[in-house]
Amino acid sequence: MNVKLRVLTAGVLFFTGQVVFAQKDTTGSKKDKEQKIDEIVVLGYSKTSTKAKSSASSVTIGSETLENRPNISVLNSIQGTAPGIVANSASGSPGSGKFNIIIRGLSSLNGSTDPLYVIDGIITSGSQFRNLNPNDIDTFSILKDAQATAIYGNRAANGVVVITTKGGKFNSKLRISYDALTSFSVLPKTDYNMSSGRELLQVQKNAGGGKGATMSQNDINNFTTNTDWRDLFSRVGMSQQHTLSVSAGGENISNFVSLGYVDSEGNIRGTDFKRFTLRNNLNGKSSDGKLTFGAIIGLGFSKRNQLDDETNTAINANTVQNPLFGTVLSAPYLAAPTFSNGLGLFNQIGTASGNGNGAYILYDNIMGGIRNQFTETSLTANVSGNYKLTSDLSIGNRTGVDYKNYQRQFARAANGYLSLVVAAGQGAKYGGFEQFNTVNDLTFNTTTNITYNHSFGDHTITAAAYLDYIKVNWQSYTQQQNGLDPLVWEFGAGTGYVPFNPATPNIYRPSASALKVTAGTLAYFGTVDYDYQGKYGVSGVIRRDGSYRFPKDNRWETFWSVAARWNIDKENFMEGSGFNLLKLRASLGTTGNQNLFTVANNTNVLTVGPSSYLDYNGPNPTTAPAYQSLPGYYLANLGNKNLKWEEVKQLDLGVDFNYKGLVEGTFDYYQKRTSRLFNSIPVTYVTGQGSLRGNNGVMDNKGVEGSLRVHILRKANTKLSVFGNVGYNSNKIISMEAPDLTGDFVDGIGGPADQWQLYPYLGVNPANGEQLFLDINGNVTQTPTAGDRRLTGKSPMPKYTGGFGFNFQHDGFFVDALFSYQKGGYIYDNLYSWVMNPSYAASGLNVSADLLNAWTPNNTNATVPSLSAVNSTLEGSSDRFLFKSDFVRLKNVSVGYTFDKKALGNLPINSIKVFAQAENIYTFTGWKGFDVEPITTYSLNVYPNPKTYSVGVNVDF
């Protein structure tokens, strides 16, 4: 029977058998039609199964969910599509690497929480995929339970994401496809009720500080300047993306080639992204079918200009270096900037960065005073082959590389304001500096397997043995030149460098540094799958892992899983029930986490902390130079020969069903326990250190998740289906030795990870306008102390996540909508606390107009404290600005029409689809800030995800 590949909008991959008719008999009677549907489940190490025979908990998202979305990274397109997955972008900057995917809750406190990513069977060091064209992806599979992830052992504690790219098909005609998308994006607004120029002056006058305090009421009433700083710092971002693909296949060879281009403007001026991608996927087989082989190569090059704060956390709260504050905190009573560069600004204000002048400095930063450009060249390539030694026994190998070259060029421009201020402070003629950083990251992965597959009677057994080897080589080089001559300096050109002079050793001194890390893992493992009559199945995995990170006695660890399923719909008593699928499944197993550190963007997690179990002497900090300013070393890490892997044991119980093709879904209950948490263990300071790295604590994640799709209409020309999914996760720290409870944000026993520890805010004292709080004994107080804080049970991680929507089609017309949501998380809105602080108004920053309704002797029922409240600095450790991060977001809506071959007549085109869509266009939330999506602690540094409107076309020749 011929088969064709069909990908449903729901994001589920199916092989659908074409309708088969028997030959017409002499009496003219007709045979019944036959149709079979088997959902393909993509698992680890290039294994696949059908939905009916899989005992794993996994979700496969198909290409139609990912294609033609205005998202640079494919990760942005999966939010709301699968239960149990927290997917959120922490930055709307084009090409940003600040993206989080959490599968079934946090599995580590201090180690990496990113899932393992596998592209076309090769483990990758990537976690953001800005150089991967989403239109090249065939399936995006998320492996969740131990049965699905234990096969990846040492790196699968946080789940596994398996990405499979498109390929050609055997015996297929030449197919040419062209996709184009043009998008326009806008920056969302805050709900802080920010002041106009006149209102800010009034707040200052009421508070007795700032420019307004020196003005008469009449002057304020007649003040007219009201600069729109949002318009100066942001813009409507225009983007375009194009993909051209060609595929064809003969009897023994098939090929797929794709070329892609993206050009995207950021909503904050000075940010943008460009990308070129090229992919070639070749598959082949021998005439006798014994040998199958493949060769895949993907090339990508991207360049992006982004804000320094994207990777430089030191300036997150800096109001003269972080342009993200420019649209909110810039004083509207200031006139729009008139200078052409930082020199003009310096001549205008000198070194006076206060009194609101920070707005001008930030504007100079984004207009060229700070340059921050990244380029990334990437190569993913692998070759694979499988040979059948007998009808039951085969041997195979897949070998590949994941190579990335990152280059960063950063400069404080020669005529940038910040450069000139620093030069003036040093008494130097020239300011500025330029820095070049290059990273080469190569991951080599080879996997060899031997597989036995045999069927006898009603029994089928498949057993396989694997050897998996990974080697990483990582190098970083940094060079910096201090002192730039504005007459000849050009960004990135190496010109205009001021020579070093020994007579002035503290200025114009160049610097250089380098770092090299070699890392690797080795594993051997086996799998077995047994099926009886399609009714019952048992599966198992056992894997032995070795890692360089741990001492010799702890270097090897064993991980395992067992699973079973019962296809109830296959039982005789279910005949005529209408269930096409009704399956119970259960699994139990372990995975490990050797990645004991979180990593910055563009850093291979295997290279961080390579010798955590050893005593380590690091370079002496420059802030505390060694004797006579000579280079020195100090004890940076106290070794621990007992350091081990983090281990995650997971139980999963699930049910999958399909009733008459009308209602289909899946539900799961899981328990996940992380033991041997990587954490600090307190030790006596006699050792020279207050703690050492070790295993300290146990943490649980428990939850339920489910998805449901209902096909309301299934007529020939009209189809309508609605769908939804939900995931609930409860996180709790079970045990920990001497937890640190000294801050506002802690890990306390009995509560969730990253728990807020604050004292309650009660409101305003009507007698004097002071803030009121609740102390640890339950008494009302105006002077709380650190000891009054208590564990709140609240954390930034949402408890509920999911999505819902519908797909409608009538003839060629279609409408699709996807909503995403989350509930149960709490984030401290630090930016809101700033705009509600009258002292910020006095220093020349913009604040909320709500301060005009602050408490006064004549306004004693106010909800805003007095502008002169004595305890105005004490709310920082209270829950006054701790808000829910709940939201329901219209993530994507698409409307379009498809012209088929019949409508196109004799044109050499098979189909044309034209459509319009919108992304993130409306969010239902009580959050007042820019963007509620990022899961963070403090809303200090948020480049909001934009609202995007697009028009596109797909042409299939």
From TrEMBL:
Residues 332-858 form the TonB-dependent receptor-like beta-barrel domain. It is a multi-pass membrane protein. Keywords: Cell outer membrane, Membrane, TonB box, Transmembrane, Transmembrane beta strand, Transport. GO terms for cellular component: cell outer membrane. Residues 53-160 form the TonB-dependent receptor plug domain. InterPro entries: Beta-barrel_TonB, Beta-barrel_TonB_sf, Plug_dom, Plug_dom_sf, TonB-dep_OMP_SusC/RagA, TonB-dep_OMP_SusC/RagA_CS, TonB-dep_rcpt-like. It is found in: Cell outer membrane. Its main location: membrane. Belongs to the TonB-dependent receptor family. This is TonB-linked outer membrane protein, SusC/RagA family.
